[in-house]
From TrEMBL:
This is Carboxypeptidase regulatory-like domain-containing protein. It comes from the Bacteria. It comes from Nocardioides caeni. PROSITE patterns: PROKAR_LIPOPROTEIN (PS51257). Residues 1-26 form the signal peptide.
C-alpha cells in the first residue's frame, strides 16, 4: 500500500505544471512556424525529382534553420526550427540529388548562386520549382546507318577553358551518360578512334566536327543522337 501511494505521489509531482520540460517556443507562447512548401521539377526531363535536399537558412552562408528531402512526387514541406529566433524572412537552398543541380530558390528556379535567391516567408507555397539537370544523356550512332556505336569515349568539357569535367563510354546501345556536374555551358568531345570512327566535337546539328571552334555548346539533359562517321 505504501509503495502504491508513493508511486501516485511521484506521478502527481512529475505532472505538476511547470515541472515537465517545455520547449522554449512553447514557454514564450510562440506558435510553431508554418512550413514552406513546393515541388522540385526537372524542367528539361519534365519529371518531378525525389531525394532532393531542401534547407531553410536565415541567410546564404548563415545559420541552417531546418531541412527535409523531397518525396516521390518531388514535393517538400520544411519549417524553420522554432527554437532559433530570427528576424525577417528566410532563404531556401536545394541540394543536388545527382540528377538535378543544387542552388538557391529564386524566381521559380534553382539559381546556381545566392545572388538571385528570393526571401521566403514562413508558410509560403512556392509551387513548382524548376531545377537544371545535372546530367547529359545521349546516344552515339553511325551517321550513315543510324546503328548504335559501342565503345566511343565521350568527354564533357567546360566552355571557355575546355577543362575536362566528366567522361563516359557508350554501351552496346550507343548510350552514354555524364553526371553529375554544376553549370550549363559545356562542349562534348566524341572519340571513336578505338572502334574505327572519327574524333571531334558535337556540332549544333548533332554531327561531329573536327575542331572545337566549329562545335556548338551542348544542351543538357537528354540530348538525343550524336552522328559519328567511320574513318
Amino acid at each position: 500500500m505504501k509503495r502504491l501511494l508513493g508511486l501516485v505521489l511521484l506521478l502527481a509531482v512529475a505532472c505538476a505544471p511547470g515541472l515537465l520540460p517545455v520547449s522554449a517556443s512553447a514557454e514564450r507562447g510562440v506558435a510553431p512556424p508554418a512550413p514552406i512548401t513546393g515541388r522540385i521539377w526537372d524542367y528539361v526531363g519534365r519529371t518531378y525529382e525525389a531525394g532532393v535536399g531542401v534547407q531553410v537558412w536565415d541567410e546564404p552562408g548563415g545559420t541552417l534553420l531546418g531541412s527535409t528531402t523531397t518525396g516521390s512526387d518531388g514535393s517538400f514541406s520544411v519549417a524553420r526550427n522554432p527554437e532559433i529566433l530570427i528576424g525577417g524572412p528566410t532563404f531556401v537552398r536545394v541540394i543536388s540529388n545527382g540528377r538535378v543541380q543544387g542552388g538557391w530558390i529564386g524566381g521559380g528556379y534553382v539559381q546556381f548562386g545566392p545572388d538571385f535567391a528570393d526571401e521566403v516567408a514562413d508558410g509560403t507555397s512556392l509551387g513548382r520549382i524548376n531545377a537544371t539537370p545535372a546530367y547529359i544523356r545521349g546516344r552515339v550512332v553511325n551517321a550513315r546507318t543510324g546503328r548504335p556505336v559501342r565503345g566511343v569515349d565521350v568527354a564533357l568539357l567546360r566552355a571557355g577553358d575546355n577543362r575536362l569535367v566528366r567522361t563516359a563510354r557508350t554501351n552496346a546501345e550507343g548510350v552514354f551518360a555524364l553526371r553529375p556536374f554544376v553549370g550549363e555551358d559545356f562542349n562534348l568531345r566524341v572519340d571513336g578512334r578505338a572502334v574505327g570512327y572519327e574524333r571531334g566535337f558535337r556540332a549544333c546539328n548533332a554531327q561531329v566536327v573536327a575542331t572545337i571552334g566549329q562545335a556548338c555548346g551542348s544542351p543538357i539533359g537528354a540530348i538525343g543522337r550524336v552522328f559519328l562517321q567511320r574513318r
